[in-house]
Amino acid sequence: MSNDKLSRIAAKGIDLAKSLNSGQVFHWTQHGAGFVGAIDQKPCYLEQSGTQLLVSNDLISEARRYLALDHGIDEIHRTFPDDPTLNAAVFYAAGIRILRQPIWECLATFLTSALKQVAHIRGISLLIRERYGRRLEVAGTSVFSYPSPEVLAGLTLDDLRACRLGFRAANVLAAARMVASGEIDLDALAKLPSDEIRAALRGFPGVGDKIASCVLLFAFGRLEVMPIDVWIARVLKERYLPEKAKVRPTDLADFCRQYFGPYAGYAQQYLFHHWRLTYRNEKMKT
Fold it and tell me: What is the pLDDT of residue 281?
């Protein structure tokens, strides 16, 4: 770490590394004892020191909000059903917070995620940032902000395909142009009920229920929303609904709403993190 000025903030109950590497966000990079990245358009250094975090001096309030340090984790856990699958995931993923991401950055990033694994999404995100974002300096190194919709709207499909987006390039470009033109005001959506936000998000090409749910959870902070991706569908079918030969996506969504409670988004993140990192090992034991 360089001589950048740092502040200490109380951060009991958060595991910084798990939170930044749990498949919610894809650009934070290990740097010395901490991580470098950007909170919206501002460069930031974060480092865990026991129950405190070291944070770039001018980003104290932004870091608290971004890392959701105000979430009452004990209260959230008390709302969960008592079952061995979820209990194991909560234990394994202890310390993860649902981050509060900038809306456009979250939407655009998850538009690049279709049919991609976390490592691939990260590679695409970093490449888009490096080519079209703003270069920022922190802790003696460079990081890049996520490019604004106005910047991406001025690109061509070939520009975005060169960032390894493939068929996703058309969706990202269309979304950028819709936001840049004012056709959809993302900030204004925050005032609406979750179902209305979901409907508006589905107006973007390439946004189905899964991506809309990710944006609702990770950008709009709707903690009751539970995105259902391949990993969550797998754990639901194997552990919660094994007696059903055929399970439709609507069945999974209905079950999640009824079973996991008002903080289903946290249950999802714990289950996702646990199963993504342990599933193959567990299968090898059986």
Answer: 59
